[in-house]
Amino acid sequence: MKRTNTFAVRPLSETGEQLLRDLLDASAALWNEVNYQRLMRYNDEDGFEGDVWDADTGRLEGKYKGVLGASTAQQVIRKNNEAWRGFFENKKACHDASNASVTEHPEPPGFRGNEDDGRQLKTVIRNTSYTVEWGDRSRLEILVGSELKDRYDHTGRLRLEIAGNPNWPDYEKQGRLDLWYDETDSTFRASQPVTVSDETRATPLASEKAALDIGANNLVACTTTTGEQYLYEGRELFHRFRETTREIARLQSKLPDGRYSSEHIRRLYHKRTRRRDHAQEALCRDLLERLYEEGVDTVYIGGLTDVLETHWLVETNAKTHNFWSFKKFTERLACTAEEYGISVEVRSEAWTSQECPQCGSTDRTTRHQDTLTCPCGFKGHADLTASETFLERQTEQSARPMARPVRFEWDDHNWSGISHPHESPKEQRTDPSTVHRNGNIVSSES
User: What pLDDT, in 10s, does the model give residues 412-428?
Assistant: First the structure.
């Protein structure tokens, strides 16, 4: 089965960092030149005859191989090929009335910034042009073109320190490496596709269940049949998402007539999306690692379609669909759960947020912010109560007595446990992912 190791990397010196930046910048420049030739042919501009595949990629490969190395230049061009093929496939699907997979007209592949405003620092490296070593001194070594090595008086491959330990250290083979600079948190990152055996991740040791209530202010409320409850709060994340959205709208209002975007706006979109995806990935890993250790083999997620249309406010819908992107989160959770041998099932959760767990009433309860109250005397946390009710519906049995819930807030790197009045002290979190640990320092450059 195919999996991915994603991790942060750090150059070992200022010279090494500048060399890496030049490598990534040259990759973006090559992408732009190839993409420009293809876009001009696609738009049938004067001087650009033939279709997009007639672009002179051989000349461009020769132009950049001295900096990137021939194999990396080839991979950048191949990546652009894949982007254009994907565009044509989506365009075909969009015009196929019987195909509902593409609902918006696709746009041709875009450019990676420009020299004046700054390019997106990103490259792709062939599987034979890099090596990864895991251990006390984890490191990544990548191929560098001869011109770049001469410029910085560098010999051999460029060595980078890896932060943390991999999720999949024992793999049968590695794929093409993506390497980029993440402007969201000023970090160089790498994504390494690997092929591992089907037996690499054992199944949970028990058959416990868990139910998730996906919300707006509280992103995930979880209750398990073991009696544990987890709450991941999202108000600060949404606040920052909304601030970025307002800044995008402000910049769009100042654009000249006929223009709809700019490099600054595109970067803000990317930063907003990257920040959300980063938090989602970390949440999935944090939650599923906990559930795996508890022996949970099935996670139930509420399907929101009927609930949103009937009960939720417009702002709540916007938070869930636009900010948290419910569908993308569900897909990410299911993909990550597969690594742990945990299945994810989407079920209807209609009325769970209004149902009183004591008397079963749905029309007499009142929800105010995070609190659900009922005239029968019940008072509790609305989202945690909803996840408990949802779990009982799926398992058709009463949940065990609940421990005090563990609450988490996002600090841009981790979902950290926080203390609340009358609750347990702050919990120190253990994150199995490789992205945010300090890692092991590599002694020297090769």
Answer: 778 887 644 434 333 43
Cα distance between residue 352 and residue 346, in whole Å: 14
HSE, CB side, 13 Å, CA atoms: give it for residue 261.
10
Q: Which amino acid is at 422?
A: H
What lies within 8 Å, CB to CB, of 153 at 6+ separation is: none
CA distance 391 to 414: 27
Cβ count near 388 (within 10 Å)? 24
Question: Are 424 and 404 a contacting pair, CB within 8 Å?
Answer: yes
* Angle between helix 14-42 and 70-94 (nearest 10): 40
Q: For residues 187 and 176, give the distance between their C-alpha atoms in angstroms, rounded to a whole number.
A: 20
Residues 6+ away with beta carbon under 8 Å from 251 = 262, 264, 265, 268
Distance of CA 114 to the CA centre of its chain: 25
Measured at the alpha carbon of residue 38, what is the angle toward residues 33 and 39, in degrees to the nearest 5?
95
Would you say 252 and 265 are in contact if contact means Cβ atoms under 8 Å apart?
yes
pLDDT in tens, 73-124: 999 999 999 999 999 998 888 777 776 665 677 889 999 988 777 889 999 9
Cβ neighbour number for residue 140 with a 10 Å cutoff: 24
